[in-house]
Amino acid sequence: MRRPVIGVTASRDERGTLSVGREYLESVLRAGGLPLIVPYVEGDEPIREIAERIDGLLLTGGGDIDPAWFGEEPIPGLGWVDPGRDHLEIFLIRRMLEERKPILAICRGCQILNVAAGGDMFQDLYRQREDLLQHQQKAPRSHLSHSVEVAEGSLLHRIAGSTAIKVNSFHHQAVRKPAPGFIACAKAKDGVIEGVESVRHPFVLGVQWHPEHLVETDAVSRRLFEAFVQAAASA
């Protein structure tokens, strides 16, 4: 049986070097998928071809997102942005949505998924919100830092099997308003959105935490990748 091909997005430094955490690739492999790193390409046609050839898309973490994509000017708390990455991922997301192929979006990926679909986000939680939990944990990446409330009946709820889970946390940006056709399927105790999902597609899910660092010890994280790869196999 052919493994479903999962396109995995990559970060890029100022010299153009691509990097992807091995945990993303290993999590896809462990779940039965074949991970392929998405190259940076010029022009929209090659991006369209990538969307046609992959069975699912894994959007990884990384730098900040240019607020011009959701109609805002940059604020002081905004970090490093890569316009090329933003364009690649937004165009690719929109093609995958059109083709109704599965998407799993992690951390930055959750935010850019929401922006690509027409939502917006906080450029810097700590300047734009008050009374926050610690969303940039000072602990190992495999540590479950804070609790999350999962919306009953959501795709995430069906995967997690619970309306209350614990997650790790490494972010200063977050979804503010879910895109049209999306719901907030998970929230932290301080109200910060921790997950979004499409109500118009079989499997389009974004989570603000990093399950790729938890698959060895956390059953919910393992099921998240397994459900995604299974959806890609049947897409």
From TrEMBL:
<dbReference type="InterPro" id="IPR011697">
    <property type="entry name" value="Peptidase_C26"/>
</dbReference>
<dbReference type="Pfam" id="PF07722">
    <property type="entry name" value="Peptidase_C26"/>
</dbReference>
<dbReference type="GO" id="GO:0033969">
    <property type="term" value="F:gamma-glutamyl-gamma-aminobutyrate hydrolase activity"/>
</dbReference>
<dbReference type="GO" id="GO:0006598">
    <property type="term" value="P:polyamine catabolic process"/>
</dbReference>
<keyword id="KW-0808">Transferase</keyword>
<dbReference type="InterPro" id="IPR044668">
    <property type="entry name" value="PuuD-like"/>
</dbReference>
<dbReference type="GO" id="GO:0005829">
    <property type="term" value="C:cytosol"/>
</dbReference>
<dbReference type="InterPro" id="IPR029062">
    <property type="entry name" value="Class_I_gatase-like"/>
</dbReference>
<dbReference type="GO" id="GO:0016740">
    <property type="term" value="F:transferase activity"/>
</dbReference>
<protein>
    <submittedName>
        <fullName>Putative glutamine amidotransferase</fullName>
    </submittedName>
</protein>
<keyword id="KW-0315">Glutamine amidotransferase</keyword>
